[in-house]
Amino acid sequence: MTPRFPTPADPLLKPPAPGWRAAWALAVFTTVVLGTAQAATTAAAAPPDSAEPATPAAPKDAPPAKSLLDGATYAERAAVFLKHCATAKHAQTLNAKHGMASCVSRLLTGVDTPQALQQFTASATATFAAARTGKSPLDPFDKHALLHTWLLARDKVSFPPEAVASLRDYIALWKHKKWVGYGALNYRLMNDGSGYLAAEQWPALVDADGLDADQIKAATRDRLFGYFDEIVHRNTHEYAAPTYYGVDLAAMKMLADFALDPEMKKRASLTLDWMLLNVACAWNQGYHTAPAGRAKYWGSTNTSPDSMDATAAIGWLYFGGARPVNGAGMNDGGSLWFVAGDYHPPALLAEIARDRATAFTHRGSVLFGRDEQARFTIWHTPVFTLASQWENISSPNAGLYKETRRALLKWLSPSPGSTFTVLQENPQRPYRLADGKRNAFGYGENPFGQDLQCEGTLIGVFNVPENYPHYRLYAPFSREGAILKRVERDGWYFCHGGTVLFGFRPLQPCKWGKSEQNCDVLYGDARTGGWIVETGATTAYAGGGVDAELDRFAAAVAAKTRIDASSLTDPAPRLRYTALSGHTLDLTYRPHGKPYADQNKIDGQPVDYRAFPLLGNPWVEQAVGGDALTVRHGGQSLVYDFKAWTRSN
Fold this sequence. Notes:
Elements: H1 20-34, E1 68-69, H2 74-87, H3 96-109, H4 113-132, H5 140-153, H6 161-172, H7 185-201, H8 213-234, H9 244-258, H10 262-281, E2 283-284, E3 287-288, H11 309-319, E4 325-326, H12 332-335, H13 347-354, E5 360-369, E6 372-380, E7 384-392, H14 400-403, E8 407-411, E9 419-420, E10 423-424, E11 449-454, E12 457-463, E13 473-478, E14 485-489, E15 492-496, E16 500-506, E17 510-512, E18 519-524, E19 528-537, H15 546-560, E20 562-564, E21 574-578, E22 584-588, E23 600-602, E24 605-606, E25 615-617, E26 620-622, E27 628-633, E28 636-641, E29 646-648
Antiparallel strand pairs: 1-4, 2-3, 5-6, 5-25, 6-7, 7-8, 8-9, 10-13, 11-12, 12-19, 13-18, 14-15, 15-16, 16-19, 17-18, 20-21, 21-22, 22-23, 23-24, 25-26, 26-27, 27-28, 28-29
Helix pairs in contact: 1-4, 2-3, 2-11, 3-4, 3-5, 4-6, 5-6, 5-7, 7-8, 7-9, 8-10, 9-10, 9-11, 10-13
């Protein structure tokens, strides 16, 4: 199964009508669970022509009070997160996707067990009834959440037989013979993984295709093994997604924990190792910093210990961080599944995730099919990380551009919002430009921008055609406290982030515009241009306070760097820049469909992106498509063989 970008050609599960779940569920839930008429739940549906299924919004209750979580070990962190989820105020909802994290946390801890069992029973019964009568679509989030809750908690509590029967009968409504539905990996793993495990648990199960349990296992096993093989050899189009990679991890963990077939359990566990190693390689003391295939909205880019989202929350559980995290920002629906179960990653992964004593580069890759690909560069230092991607995509209409995140800077800070990136407006659906709709703030990338990174320096060029509807450059500067001071000097916008100093230099006119998402936003209206991001650890300029340190950094940039933008208005715009590090970066714009022919150079040498590994840094080595993954650290090593599906010391 080759990872691909979802497009309108994908068969879709029909989105629900707006508000269906709230109106239908309210009476059932208030009677069965709460005995009150005060509970309500809402769900936002995507427009009928959406290119993906509707994603219901979380219940619109007041957000929980901020709760700081900390722990020196995985066990301590898992315990405090579980307790937080069990005791925090949650909307009591029939929506399994949003309600089961609270439910299972209470079942595992013994907090309000009778009510939690009532909630599970009502949710399973109502979800089955609504799907059976056609009042709601089949949703793999519900399928996974209900089954995972039962599997995790059944040894702790006795579930009512009618609840288990409703869960079983709900899964029997699904078809498993062929893949039908939205093609994203999280849907595939939740759907096929749940179907496989249900068939193991209930040998008499018969699905909507008429397949018996053995046939369900055979059909889903083949597809699951295909997903595993694809992930560990080529990566996935949901790479590093703040939300959806976490959902992928959760669905994989359910298989690693509960598959009865030894081969399924082994392959799921080894694939989960590989996926978590990706998180470890992008981890810096509580911050997950990487290019991403899917990063919806500014909030999923502006993650931090204050608002982690699912993928980073899972990373925190296993790898820890430099400061406590906000329990209310963990996206427990995607991450809570990691507080219990038999699976645990090798300790070596955590050692690699925590070793940030010296700066180093991590490189990675994802192959989308044929020659389409993305290659990553992640520069870690002890106090900040800069990451970017180079992509080779044949068409500007590719679905990748709808949600991808191309570049990211994060730094250690006691305040939220320690995030900076350069963005450019793009269509809501690049594959359907006739809509004329601009994407949301911080959502996706313009197809006509390209980056080049060398260590802590990043440059970009863009060349947006006159007939392309969206093109404005914009750079958000956080107002949440992570930027201590910002000054404008000689065309640069210099910022002091406490641990990091960085400068942004647009090479075309820009001006401050409408603020968004707690950010001051700098906008540029040119269709062709370029920009530079330069960084440095504050320790290299330390002394005299914020103003003095920022002045020293700005003076160093003025004295040591050189910008050659003389070819920026050429048909193929070119930018050359000598960085603070002394390295020279040379980036020439390459149109879609034109082969890469050394347009990107560092110190005069072409960057050979095709030689990038699937995973590669001082401790990790795997070639693209290679069966062998080697992980070494501190005199210990692991060797994975993804042809034989083995792991050895």
